[in-house]
Write a structure and sequence with these properties.
With 205 residues, this protein is mainly α. The chain contains 10 helices and no strands. The chain has 2 domains: 53 residues, Arc Repressor Mutant, subunit A; 140 residues, Tetracycline Repressor, domain 2 (Orthogonal Bundle), CATH 1.10.357.10. The protein is elongated.
């Protein structure tokens, strides 16, 4: 099927970003090679430089492409809530498990950040700013919304919202390290996470 130039460019960029993410996850940032990324994407190496001026920029855009849609959904849920805070929070946590913890590519991206982030502070900062900080800001808005509605009490967790996402991070790290030894039933774990979290947040009857 014929496509116009804009569609062809868009497809080419998507292929490059997907190939780059696979290369970075497989080889690590330092060892990843643009030649290999180009081969994976089915393009010439020079084509990559048409769209990305450095390997760091390519990494950042690959990360944004894979996690950006999920973060945008979190922000949308928090900015214009159409349901009660508990329902929104359940949706956010289940989305986190479905799209990060159970997705091998995104989970392996987290593994890469943990293992190589301290060596590449720019990449660590980017991952934090694009995923962690934006998700935490959305979470804080939902928690504040729940307090305003009287659904949530003034729990310490409202002021330390990292504890809300903490069990999901534990599940991700456990799965990265021990999936072959002692796998977690992630669906059951997610529901236990929700139960534990909401018991601590709900306002006294």
């Amino acid at each position: 099927m014929a496509t116009d130039g804009k569609e062809t460019k868009s497809q080419r960029i998507r292929f490059i970003l997907a190939a780059a993410l696979d290369e970075f996850v497989d080889k690590g940032f330092a060892a990843a090679r643009l030649d290999s990324i180009a081969e994976r994407a089915g393009v010439a190496k020079g084509t990559i430089y048409l769209y990305f001026d450095t390997k760091e920029t390519l990494f950042e855009q690959a990360v944004r492409a894979v996690i950006g849609p999920m973060v945008a959904r979190f922000e949308s849920m928090a900015a214009a809530p159409e349901e009660d805070a508990e329902t929104i929070l359940r949706q956010m946590i289940r989305t986190l498990y479905r799209e990060v913890i159970t997705d091998p590519r995104k989970r392996n991206l987290l593994r890469l950040i943990i293992s190589q982030g301290p060596r590449f502070q720019r990449l660590l900062r980017f991952y934090h700013d694009e995923l962690i900080a934006r998700s935490m800001a959305a979470l804080r808005r939902v928690l504040a919304y729940g307090v305003e509605r009287g659904e949530f009490g003034c729990s310490p967790a409202v002021d330390q919202p990292q504890i809300i996402f903490g069990p999901a991070l534990t599940a991700a790290i456990w799965t990265i390290l021990f999936e072959e030894i002692e796998p977690i039933d992630l669906d059951a774990y997610c529901e236990a996470h929700l139960d534990f979290m909401l018991r601590g947040l709900k306002a006294p009857a």
